[in-house]
Structure formats: C-alpha cells, structure tokens
Amino acid sequence: MALYAELHRHLGGSVVPRVLWRYFQRHADDKIERFADYAAFEDFYTRPRNTLDEYLELHTLVESVQTIETLPYFVYRLIRGAYIFENLAYLEIRYTPYLRTSEHLTQSQRIEQMAEIVDVVGKASQLSEYPIVTSQILCMHSRLPYEVNRAIVDLAAQKREYVCAVDVAGGDGHYAERLEEFVQLYAYARSLGLNTTGHLYETPAGCYPELLPYLMRIGHGIQIPLLHPELLPDLASRQQCLEVCPTTYLKTGTLQDMRQLKLVFDRCLDAGVDIAICTDNAGLHNVRLPFEYENLLTLDIIDFDELQACQDAAFRHAFAWPYGDRPASLLNGLLKPSLPTGVLAMQD
Q1: Domains: count for the chain
Q2: Do strands 217-220 and 4-10 pair parallel, antiparallel, or not at all (unpaired)?
Q3: What CATH number should be reported for the domain holding residue 113?
Q4: What domain range is 290 assigned to?
Q5: Which one, 48, 55, 179, 230, has the greatest CB density within 10 A?
Q6: What is the pTM of this model?
C-alpha cells in the first residue's frame, strides 16, 4: 500500500549496492576488480566519510555509468524498489542532467543532449506495474560553468511535463565565490515560474541567507535551527519546508549522533516550519525511507504525532503531487463501511 512521499532522492545515490555490483559485474568489471567480493564493495560504498566533499565523490562512481543507454536500467530498479520496499506514492528524482551526457561531446553538444536525458528518465519512470507519481528536479552544480547552469534552468522550463523544480548541488561550501551568480540563476528560475529548492545550510560552511528568499524548499537546512534559529520566523512566514535527510549527516561527518537532530525538529516545529523527512541517497546509505522514520522514533527524536505531521508536510510541499490529500486520507474514505439506505434514513 503506497503511503509516503519522498522529496529528496538523488538519482546517483539511489542505486542500492547489490544492483550496482551486479551491473558492474556484467558491464564494467574494471570498476570492482579491486574488491575481493561483494561484502568489501558494500562496505566501501556505504561506509561513513569524513566530509561532505569526500562523500560526494561517490556520486561520480555512479554518474559515469548512468548514460542515455543505461538510465532505463537504473530508473526501473529505483521505481520498483521505491514502490515495493518503501511504500512510496510520490517520488521526486533529482540529478544534474549534464553529468549524464556523453563526455566526448563539446559543451554545447552536451547541453543539447540534456533534453534527451530528461526524456529518457521521464519515460523510464512511468511504470504501470509500479504506480508512483514521479517528477524530476534538475540540479545546477557548483562545479559547472554559468552557461551550463543557465541551460539547466531553461531545460526545466521547457520540460514541465517531466520536471517540477530546479536545485543547486555540488557541496554547499563551494557556492561562496559564485554566490551572486547563483542568486541571479534562482531569480531567473522564479521569473520563469519554476519551483525551487537548493542544497543549503547543510554544513556550517554552507550558510547563505542571500539565497533563502528564492527557495520554496530548502535541501537539508539543518544549520538554520542549529546555528541560526533567528531565521526560523522568516522561513515560517515564507512557508518554506526543510528536506531533512537524517542518515546523510552521519555519513558526511556533519553530525556525530543522530540525536542531535532533536533540536532541529523541536525548534522547527515550535516555530511553525515544516520538515519533510527524506533519504537523500538511499543506495549509498542502504537505508530506505521507512527506516529513517523508525530510527527517528526509536531514538526519541520525534514522536508519532510529529512523524505524521512531517509525512503530511511532505505531500503538502510536493511540487507535483496532483491531489489535495495524502494517500492515507484518501484511503480513509474508501475504507469507511457504507451504511444501508434504511440506516441512513433513520440517522436523518
């Protein structure tokens, strides 16, 4: 029974270790020849890193094999797992399309090829046997030139049948020297009527208040309640939602203990700032969305009422969810027993 919404799932980090291992065995065994067996590969792929930058290097391992030809293979397995194992009714897949284009092409040719990448991902996501509402978020990147990032924004505007928003990724500590450029790009995106989110306030090095007014949601954003709680009233007034990905902060060395998130949830909920609980990179973490919920409950970071509030917020802030209510609310109406006509008359 599909019940949940996932608002922050990277295409590169969504591939679970077993699927990636099998792909490498069949098509690129040079990438795993240094590992003695699957267990050694899984340990390498999922173990914590010391910094966010070190963690993000793992994305390049997957990006190098996610091409026009292979994307349907990876997207199919992502959708299948999300439906069967995570009970997802809604999924936003985010990625940088330029990094899936052919490296032998010129920059202008790769920009042109991005449209084909979006089409391939969009069509591969529509599976009748796994009925999940899906949409794409196209990520600008801190290490790509302005021309490519602007082309990504333009592509998002051109492909609204598949794309629901734009984002910026690549490590929030790298935006500083190009901050005005990203402000201009987000202002441009908003002028085109695009939805916006952005990897921001994930680490202490990624705190840029200049970008906040342009974002409808904030990717991570945990440093706002931790280090800058004075900003929370502004977030509440703008109805911005934080996309909190609990396991990520342990994998990147940003937090040492998941219990540190209790302050994040407490301060946000007290201030009226919504939180959507997400996975970020379910494959890299080997942790699916229901387990993120369970971990937060088990560690007494949130209670069941707060969990439901976060689940409701995920659907409320979903950029492409087409219904007024979340699936649980829709099911409640379907499951109510219908009363015989005579009984209804007696009640009247």
Answers
A1: 1
A2: unpaired
A3: 3.20.20.140
A4: 4-323
A5: 55
A6: 0.91
